Amino acid sequence: MQVISGLAKGIKLSVPKGNDVRPTSSRTRTSLFSSINEFNGLTIVDLFAGSGSLGLEAASRGAKKVIFIEQSKKHCKFIEDNIEKVKKAGVETEFHVIHGDATKSLASISRLTDIVNMTFSDPPYPISEEMFGIVTKNKHLAAYSENMLIWEVPDFCENKMVFLKPGLWKVAKTRKFGRTEFLFCKPKSI
């Protein structure tokens, strides 16, 4: 696993061994980030951050601030080590790592920033449906009117209808890269 583009292009990221983390594949990340294109000056949130690969890719491409939320203390250590690697490559992004449950830590974001432009969410597939329901009904992320919530949809799920009812959000578009589908959601007026 490595950073695909930007200042830290080619930097190898450390990823926890085992099945605890399922990083978005390089090919899928390349397609996703190419479809977004502009990251300069943005504030990014990486929910269920795992190794931090999505937030670090955004930082490498010019994001001003990246906030990682990860429940596993072990994974937070990997994120912190990966942050140091991209900093050594010249990335000057402001980084924050929040160790905590993503659904309970959303209120913490407002202490770190006044704006969120984009939120990446790639929870473990077995809990993705449940987390989607919880996160999209939480007012903290939806309060940032500029925010685009980008949710990786499991290629297998029992009730895909859950992803068509995003609580405080509306689906602006869907994109499919290979077998991986992403929902791009914008907040409804609150």
Mean pLDDT: 88
CATH fold title: Rossmann fold
At CATH's second level, what is the architecture? 3-Layer(aba) Sandwich
User: What would you call the shape?
Assistant: globular
Strand content: 15-25%
Class from helix and strand fractions: alpha/beta
Outline the biggest β-sheet: 7 strands, mixed
Order of helices and strands: HEHEHEHEHHEEE
Structural summary, described in words:
With 190 residues, this protein is an alpha/beta fold. It has a single domain, classed as Rossmann fold. The protein has six helices and seven strands, in the order H-E-H-E-H-E-H-E-H-H-E-E-E. The chain has a seven-stranded mixed sheet with strand order 3-2-1-4-5-7-6, with helices on both faces. Helix 2 runs parallel beside helix 3. The longest helix has 16 residues. The model has no long low-confidence stretch (mean pLDDT 88).
Key structural traits:
Rossmann fold, 190 residues, 7-stranded mixed sheet, alpha/beta
What's the gist of this structure?
The protein has 190 residues and is α/β, with parallel strands linked by helices. The chain is 27% helix and 23% strand.
How do the helices and strands line up, and which of them pair or pack?
Layout: H1 26-36, E1 43-47, H2 53-60, E2 65-70, H3 73-88, E3 94-99, H4 102-105, E4 118-121, H5 128-135, H6 139-142, E5 148-153, E6 169-177, E7 180-187
Parallel strand pairs: 1-2, 1-4, 2-3, 4-5
Antiparallel strand pairs: 5-7, 6-7
